[in-house]
Structure to design on (233 residues):
């Protein structure tokens, strides 16, 4: 179904550009060391965090000592895991739906800690005439990188716009396959919008629910700015 939607074959990257500059939202920047031999170099990337686009596999979050589908947390180690990222090596091919909440509200970006509700997702669907359905990859744009370019970097861990945890119900009802965003997909608030959860699962209740309970991989820290402009055109 996704393949049949292709008309022009235009591709737009939604990977955020790596940076060697240390910043509040990039405390462990990309390291590039050029070797003595020409054309040989070494990279160091700490990809989990709030800056580098990365894929959260099903072994990334646990709840009560268990990973998704009853896999013990102890089964995930440096030798891999039955539900590790290596099992996605052939990629994910499906329909992608951009949910552009700043464009819905007529603003350039959402302020940090803003929560996006189910009602706002449904309002976006109505505006663009597209309904999220089974197998879709939902990509949330909050305008994070536009705000950063205008106002400078900030510590986005614990202070970033994204989906409210209750959006998990919507994603389950629509049978969504994958979620991504220009942050961590969920709103980062301090304290968490779910009381007590910051001590349990790193202030990311939606990550815990989607990954460990629903078997849904996530993609964090995308850069959908160019995609948003293409979609608008």
């Amino acid at each position: 179904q996704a393949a049949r939607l292709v008309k022009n074959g235009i591709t737009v990257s939604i990977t955020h550009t790596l940076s060697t500059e240390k910043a509040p939202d990039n405390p462990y920047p990309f390291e590039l060391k050029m070797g003595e031999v020409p054309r040989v170099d070494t990279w160091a990337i700490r990809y989990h965090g709030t800056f580098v686009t990365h894929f959260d596999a099903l072994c990334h979050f646990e709840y009560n000592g268990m990973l998704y589908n009853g896999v013990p947390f102890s089964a995930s180690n440096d030798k891999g895991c039955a539900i590790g990222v290596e099992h996605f090596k052939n990629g994910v091919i499906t329909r992608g739906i951009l949910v552009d909440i700043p464009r819905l509200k007529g603003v350039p970006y959402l302020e940090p800690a803003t929560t996006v509700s189910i009602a706002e997702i449904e309002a976006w669907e109505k505006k663009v005439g597209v309904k999220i359905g089974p197998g879709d990859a939902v990509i949330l744009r909050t305008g994070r990188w536009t705000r950063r370019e205008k106002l400078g970097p900030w510590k986005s861990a614990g202070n970033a716009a994204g989906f409210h945890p209750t959006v998990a119900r919507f994603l389950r009802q629509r049978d969504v396959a994958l979620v991504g965003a220009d942050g961590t997909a969920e709103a980062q608030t301090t304290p968490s919008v779910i009381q007590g959860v910051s001590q349990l699962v790193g202030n990311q209740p939606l990550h815990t629910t989607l990954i460990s309970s629903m078997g849904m991989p996530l993609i964090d820290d995308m850069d959908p700015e160019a995609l948003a402009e293409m979609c608008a055109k």
Summary: The mean pLDDT is 91.
